[in-house]
Amino acid sequence: MTFSCWLLARLLLLLPIQVPLILPALFDSLFLGMTSLTLWRCIYKVKQWRNIGFPIMLFAALVINNVSYYALFERDFILANQIWQAMLWWLALLITIVGGRVIPFFTAMRIKATKADPLTWVEYPLILTMILLVIQSLIHLIPQEVERGLLLITGLLHLVRFVRWLPHKTLTEPMLWSLHLAYLMLPLSLLAMSWYLDNEYAYRSLLHLFAIGCMATLCLSMISRVSLGHTSRNIYEGPKMILAFICLPLAALLRALMPIWFPAHSQVWLWLAGTCWFIAFALFVWHYLPILFRPRIDGRPG
Questions:
Q1: Which of 24, 52, 177, 190 has a beta carbon 3.0–4.6 Å from 12's, enabling a disulfide?
Q2: Which pLDDT tens digit goes with each residue over 188-200?
């Protein structure tokens, strides 16, 4: 039912006939609302209150998503752009929370080291500043110089967190260093955006440093990992994905930084970035499609 709502919302927007926006908005809201409610019920059932932020974040996404439909209805492209940026930071907040749990855990388990305990003076301010970035993207409440400081502080806090996860000890394990490399792109994006905040073209271009370098690379690394784990295969003895894990951060640099530094060749950088993106996900399909189409090797269903 939940997936059907998600699918219907998107199919309605693709139809060649005029469809009232209230219909896809309704199905989108049902999808996000039911997902949020399901998560809340699971959390309530086992009393895992440390995860209560996830259904709250999904409910916030529901509200912001409906505002995006309003912007589309009114043809308010300025508001639509603000929502787009805010939801990127919403995803960065999600990565901050989930990545902050799983990346050090996976690393400690594999390298047989003690997992770094979270530092209160890093974790709580970091979550707060990420939330402020979402709000700032929506309503531009604080002055530019304050926003610059916010981006700088948030980036530095992420770097402190990142260094404590011992990334240098993962260099022989692509399934680990790809996660670390993806997460590193988040503070690098924040620091670069702090530097270029008064340059609107550069600031918008640098959003791709996060979207491709962090978000897409993290997705690729995680789907590669779970495709093996959920088919009962050894996570660290799977297909060679080194080239794919390198191509996405490279695509991010080509898409985000090169047009800023060498704008005369922007089209070249876009084509190269697109090629790197294609190679990365083509390699995943090539290596993992046969695995995902075959039964689990332990004979269990799924």
A1: 24
A2: 999 999 999 999 9
The two structure tokens encoding residue 23: 């219909």
CA distance linking residue 226 with residue 53, whole number of Å: 24
CA separation for the pair 166, 173 (Å, rounded): 13
Distances (CA, A) of 273 to 95, 217, 269, 276: 23, 13, 6, 5
Closest by CA position to 80, among listed 65, 93, 92: 65
The answer to whether the beta carbons of residues 182 and 213 sit under 8 Å apart is: yes
Domain ranges of the chain: 1-75, 77-293
Smallest Cα–Cα separation from 252: which of 270, 230, 239, 229?
270
For residue 291, count CB atoms less than 10 angstroms from its CB and return exposed for 0-12, middle for 13-18, buried for 19 or more.
Answer: middle
Percent of the chain at pLDDT > 90 equals: 75
Structure tokens at 73: 């209805």
Span 141-170, average pLDDT:
95
Backbone torsions φ then ψ of 15, nearest 5 degrees: -65, 145
> What is the Cα–Cα distance from 203 to 194, expressed in whole angstroms?
9
Distance CA 182, CA 166 (A): 14
Instruction: Let me know: does 213 contact 253? Beta carbons within 8 Å.
Output: yes
Residue 302 has what pLDDT? 63
What does the DSSP assignment read for 71-106? HHHHT-HHHHHHHHHHHHHHHHHHHHHHHHHHHHHH
- Torsion-angle region of 113 (φ positive above 0: left; ψ -120 to 50: alpha; else: beta): beta
